[in-house]
Design a protein that fits this description.
HTH_TetR; Arc Repressor Mutant, subunit A; 207 residues
């Protein structure tokens, strides 16, 4: 079947989804840096120019994959927030575990979310900014409920501090750079304990 015939079989939206699925499938086997527009186009049976017309650029194609992955990560975090916990520390540990486990299940797709760099003429789309804001906002809301005496400015700092610490440990674990016989989960548990203890002290100073 030639390319012209395929163009008549699929809508633009279907081709977009095919391309996104193809990238995610490739990311189960290799790093995103080893991919190319030509390989992805070959996977879906369309010319590279077709994908450029649909996504705007190769980077925006990868960014669309990143958005799907980030959306699924956000959903996992939201599910944790719907659960009931006996302490703030347990809740934060559950959020950290959900984040790290998501990354370990699909490491290359997870890396793509945070490693992709857009060109100077490729502004970050508002939809992507919104996803990032929702992830940070979710953490900020949870911390606001757990630490009600913190000011809004300190909550903004706390949410980013917590996310940065969890993300850093997760990244080191994915790259096998923890240089420890202790598991990433044990380190995560200890890290959350230290962070939560410090934040309780900080909140006490604000009351």
């Amino acid at each position: 079947m030639d390319t012209m015939a395929r163009r008549k079989e699929h809508s633009h939206q279907e081709i977009r989804l095919m391309a996104l699925d193809a990238v995610e499938q490739l990311l189960t086997q290799e790093e995103y840096t080893s991919l190319s527009l030509r390989r992805i186009a070959s996977q879906v049976g369309y010319a590279p120019s077709t994908l450029i017309n649909l996504f705007g650029s190769y980077n925006y194609l990868l960014l669309s994959v990143s958005a799907r992955v980030l959306g699924r990560l956000l959903e996992q975090m939201q599910l944790v927030c719907q659960q009931t916990f006996t302490s703030g520390e347990q809740q934060l540990l559950a959020l950290g575990k959900a984040y790290a486990e998501f990354a370990h299940i699909q490491p290359q797709a997870f890396r793509l979310v945070f490693a992709l760099h857009l060109g100077p003429e490729e502004p970050l789309p508002e939809s992507q900014q919104q996803l990032i804001a929702e992830l940070i906002g979710l953490l900020e809301q949870q911390l606001g409920d757990l630490l009600p005496n913190l000011s809004s400015s300190k909550l903004a700092l706390a949410s980013r501090s917590f996310w940065s610490s969890i993300h850093g440990l997760t990244g080191l674990a994915l790259d096998d750079k923890l240089f420890s016989q202790v598991s990433w989960l044990q380190l995560l548990t200890f890290q959350v304990h230290l962070w939560w203890t410090a934040m309780q002290q900080e909140e006490g100073a604000c009351s």
